[in-house]
Amino acid sequence: MWIKAVIPQLERKGFPRIDPLHDGRPVPLVMRFYDAYFGIAAGFHVAAPDGEERLGTWKGDGKKKLKSKWGDPEP
């Protein structure tokens, strides 16, 4: 029942039809259809680089001093 009710509606929206030579639907076209159908492919923008990458450097010395509202912790 699902195949007779839903698939024709999807085919009217661009879902690929069964290829008689291969007796199936082309998988890349099905994936492309669902990407567009669910809006996965829409809305992606390439961001501009935000600056030079310095992977070997760290911020600070890595030793944070914890402070609480009762004062500094004991060493």
- Series of secondary-structure elements, N-terminal to C-terminal: HHH
N-end to C-end Cα span: 73 Å
| Coarse shape | elongated
Decide which structural class fits the backbone.
Answer: mainly alpha
Q: Note poorly predicted spans.
A: none
Q: Number of DSSP strands?
A: 0
Helix content: 25-40%
Tally the helices: what do you get? 3
Q: Biggest sheet, open or closed, and with what strands and sense?
A: none
Give Rg in angstroms: 28 Å
Region (Disordered): 52-75
Structure, described:
Residues 52-75 are annotated as: Disordered. The chain has 75 residues and is mainly α. The protein has a domain at 18-43. Helices cover 28% and strands 0% of the residues. It is built from 3 helices and no strands. The protein has helices at 2-5, 7-12, 27-37. The longest helix is centred in the middle third of the chain and has 11 residues, at 27-37. 0% of the residues are buried. The model has no long low-confidence stretch (mean pLDDT 79).
Write the layout of secondary structure elements.
Elements: H1 2-5, H2 7-12, H3 27-37
List keywords for this structure.
75 residues
What is this structure, in a nutshell?
The chain has 75 residues and is an all-alpha fold.
